[in-house]
Amino acid sequence: MPILTISRLTKRYKSGTTAVDGVSLTVKRGEIFGLLGPNGAGKTTLINCIASLATITSGSISVLGHDVVKDYLQARSLIGLSPQDLRFDIYFSIEEMLVHQAGFYGLRKREAVRRAGQLLRQFGLHELRQKTISFLSGGMKRKLSLAKAAIHQPKLLILDEPTAALDVDARLDLWDYIRKLNQEGTTIILTTHYIEEAEELCDRICILNKGKIIMLDGKKKIMDNLSENVIRFSLDRPLQDRGLLRGFDCHVQDSFVEVHVARKEQHVALRKLLSIFEKHQVRYHNFEIMEDSLEHIFLRLIKDDR
Amino acid sequence: MTGNAIGFYTLLKREFWRFFKVPNNTIFPQLITAAFFMLVFGIALGSHITSVAGVSYLLFILPGLFVQNLINGSYMNGSGSLFVSRHFGNMQDVLVSPISHHQMVAAYILSSMARGFFLGIGTLAIALLFTAFSISHPWVLLLYSLLTSFLFSCCGIIIGLWSRTWEQLNIFINFVVTPLTFLGGVFYTLEMVPPAVALITRLNPVFYVVDGIRYGMLGIAGSSIALGLAFLAGASAVLYLIVFRLVKSGYNLKV
After folding, report:
1. Contacts of B98 in chain A (CB under 8 A)
2. Superfamily (CATH H level) for A4-223
3. What percent of chain B has pLDDT over 70?
4. ipTM of the complex as predicted
5. Does the predicted TM-score (pTM) go above 0.80?
């Protein structure tokens, strides 16, 4: 059974805006699932529907078979959420906040205090445990939000922009922590604006635009099928006869030739190009293959969907 | 009630301790105001009034002062807690948790009642500095106090859910609760005021609350105690259902 099943989910706000439009997807147990999309694509709304922060207009969501509306207590107990907007209790210390959060999920006081201490140490916040939220920097708040989401060891951890406002070191630490949680069996749904983060962490990726899924597949498959690599030749002298490259998607400038090829066809294309250059005595002193990135694929998909 | 008991208890405890975190906002002002009422009205002015309904003026106003703080504490905790949690966004901690709608409502109501009782009992404790008194009908006092506190906790929660601004939050306390308590016979009997004011007082439900509490404390009553209790119980049940429906539907809680 998938850990998360979303069927024909639609969320329409009172304003009339349809933020999520008939989305259906499943998230498998144990995977890191990336939700990507431009601003306003519906990522956070989708997450809010899963986590009971938004009402559902139509369709259904279930977590390990528990419907998030009809069977909300069981469904919620399986989910941990670190939301995009960082909002905290202003009255209590950060340790008290974590202990309360654990208590909401049914952890007894002693266990809650132990887990809070463990997470505060994990995220380097232990010395600040008696402070209120106003003493924490943006990055610290982000870590505290993740600690709150993870304190009851949820089966499904939803991280909405988890590394926003973090410096590079903190981001890498957090990536390690996310991988560790995942290796321990936690399924993770991740939204991010940092495409390299999705490329680094995710097993499968769902790209949303205007509330609809425009791509959902394994990261490797997306990269293999949609990557458009560039073979770049540095010629000894400018190319005289551009007709030689007829049939290739290429760009020629002075003695540089850039040929765009699908990743899965790049070896065939390279052999063909080398053969043409040899046959017509086109000399080159160097060539390189520039790998496409998920970011470029993402941008092309979004552009095509406009 | 289904759901997790630890979750409910945690929420109740958190809401209970919240008002102790800021006592200069939630506790001391109301108690100091009550002390001033006793000092100025009870001692200074009251010394010129021989007796009202057979007791000293200070004793006469004491049940009303108790009711004022009971109502204010219950109402303000419910409204303030819900509104502040929504305003600062930490309400989402509760909304994503496996705490049932009934448990959530119960925790907010009970914590609000706790603040109301804390302020009410504090008022009586301060009164002991000025005068001696005993409780005539403890069960009547307890029942009236519980139902009144419950009712105004529900009112507070409804306003806390409805309000979108700090100004809206204060509308009900400034323009409804305060006038109702001052025109509820806290400081006067119906015979002491002009007929028009007496009529307004008779139409004011808080008058019957003050009257019932006064009966519980001093044994003086001008209206039916049983009818008053029945009204409070009925109104409490209706308001609980309203609060429950609002919370269940996610009214101003979910997007």
Report:
1. 72-74, 76-77, 104-106
2. P-loop containing nucleotide triphosphate hydrolases (3.40.50.300)
3. 99
4. 0.88
5. yes
